[in-house]
Every structure is written in C-alpha cells, then in structure tokens.
Amino acid sequence: MATLSTRTHDAPIARKKKSKMNAPAIILLAPAVLLLLSVTLYPFLYLLYTSFFSQNLMNPSAKAWIGFGNYAALFKDADVIRGFTNTLVFAFGAVGIQMILGTLIALILDKDLPGMKAITIMMLIPMSITPIVGALTWKYLLTPPFGWVGYYLQKLGIIDQPIVFLGSGFSAMMSMIALDVWNWTPFVALILLAGLKSRPHDQLEAASIDGARRYQVFIYITLPFLKRFILIAVVLRLIEAFKNFTGVFGLTNGGPGNSTLLASLVVYRKALESFQIGYAAAIAFIFLILLSIITTPLIGRLQKEITND
C-alpha cells in the first residue's frame, strides 16, 4: 500500500517535470510551425474561401458570393471533366511504367558490375534538366519533318514516313507519358536502389544455401522488403504526376483539341486566361480532394509498414 501511495503521489510530479522539459522544445518549434502553417494552411483556407465567390480579375470590384455555384458548374463543364479524366490516365499510366522500369533498373544497378557507378550518375541527367526545356526538346524531337525520332525510324526502315506523334489524341498522350517516364524513372530507380542496398544479407545467404532460384528470392525476400520503398516512390510520384503542368504546357498545351488537357492546365486557363478566379479555385479544391482520396490510403499503408518494422 505504501508503495502504491508513493507511486500515486509521484505521478503528478513526473508529469509536471515532463511538461517543464517540453516547454523549451515547444518554444523552439513554434516559429517553424507558424511558418509552416502560414505557407500551407492559410493558402488552403483562402482557396476554399475564394471558391465560394464569383470573382473576375478584369473586374475585381464585382466580387459576389454565390455559395456552391462554382462547384455545381464545374461538374457540368466538359473541359473540367476531360481534364480530370486525362489526369487520372496520365498519372497512373506514367507512374505504373516508372515503377516497372525503375525496379528493373534498380536490380541491374545493384549488381557489382564495372561501370555501374558511372551509369548511376548519368541517370541523374534527365532529373537535372529544367522541365520546360525537356518538354520543348521532346516537342522538337517528335515533330516532323525536323524531328529526329521520326527521321531515324524512317532511316532504319521501321516506318515508311515520319509519324506525327503529337497529331492524334492517343499518340500525344503516350508522348506525354513517355516524357514523364524519361524524366522521373531515375528518381524511382534511386529510391528502390537505396532499398536494395539495405536488404538483410543473412536472409539472402540463407536462401542461397537452401538453393532458392533468383525469381524466388525476388518474390519472397526482395519484393516484401522493398514494399515501403515502393510505397514511398508511388506516393511521391503520384502527387507530382497529378500536379504536372510544365510537361503538358510545353509539349502539347492540351492538344490536339483537348485530348491531353490535364486538370492543372484547366485551372491555369480558367484563372489566367479567362480570369475566373473563383471558378478556378473551386476546380483546384476538388482536384485537391481527389488527390487526397487517392494518396491517403497509400500513406496510411506506408505508416503501417513502418510501424510494423
């Protein structure tokens, strides 16, 4: 009983000491937290606030409250629906290919072969190029009659005449996906390579002693271990792919027609070409909700993987 009484008496004192110890940490973290809130929470709230108004940059004084009018209109807007649909196709197509190619490249780079370090460094070149420069370069390479891609395909006898890659909706979308794959596959490969380098060697040695084949080692040892790294790469790349603007703006500008129109380009056109700020804010807010719905389960799964480690 005396021991229990002593513990009960000491508990508030321990909590008080703990709160005093945390006070300096809270004071030191406060400026960073306030700065983070100012650059994240405030723009989010302002975006939501603006979406309930009819506001045009050409006539700012005519700002009027319309409630959910912008949201009702965007679900009937063919351009908005097309932009969201194209964004889903582009994001999942590009990220899916990047994950496959990135895994294969990471497995190759993980081998102790001569020249692997030089190849790893060269892989960083696409990531180091300014996105608009990369997009315009690809546009030049794909556009006949001066584009190198069609020219050399014709010289090699693969095609009879140069292909207008950006002339049809399907080929233009594939070109956009190819540009994103070229640009960001090295990023995925480097993340997965880091995971491969941190694999437990005792499991690999045990599998080798037991006579496991390479594909069995990959399926039952390597792939489960890489799960968290794959989730990290998928989350980061999905977020960036959904926000893609420079690539589509520089390569196709949404064309031909609206076949490659992405949600980011829709927001840009509504806000800075049509000057419908309130309407653009509503589109951006729905776009943010859609992205959150897709990425939240992945982030939750990643947290669970880290917790269960």
From TrEMBL:
Organism: Paenibacillus abyssi
Similarity annotation: Belongs to the binding-protein-dependent transport system permease family.
Source species, domain of life: Bacteria
Keyword Nuclease: no
Compartment annotation: Cell membrane
Membrane topology reported for the UniProt record: Multi-pass membrane protein
Keywords of this entry: Cell membrane, Membrane, Transmembrane, Transmembrane helix, Transport
Protein name: Sugar ABC transporter permease
Span of domain ABC transmembrane type-1: 84-298
GO cellular component annotations of the record: plasma membrane
Chief site of localization: membrane
InterPro entries xrefs: MetI-like (IPR000515), MetI-like_sf (IPR035906)
Signal peptide limits: none
